[in-house]
Model the fold of this input.
Amino acid sequence: MIALSASCWGQQRPERGRGGSNAGRGTLKDPNVPKGIYATSHGVVKSISKSELMVAMEDEHEMKFRITRKTKFISGDKQEIKTSAIESGQAVAVDAETALDGSFEAVRIVLESPKAK
Done:
């Protein structure tokens, strides 16, 4: 009986109180920043369509990102913009996640200002 009660004690649900951790709570103040951790890639737009973004990277390779209805497009001044505002040749930073099929889904595409030389 004692062994049974000891094994059941470890299976109890933890108490939910007010003093828990803040894990999972969005602490970022920018509402345009998606929740979660995403890989960010920087490059130049090679082509863009309604469903796909092709970006040329600095190390002479290209990456293809899938655009979904959840993808956010952000200008350099952190304002949300339309897909049509992004053109070939513009520098972008793409926050992406890996889909189940191994492709990259763009979560957020940010227009970058040209670098000063």
Notes: The longest helix spans residues 2-9.
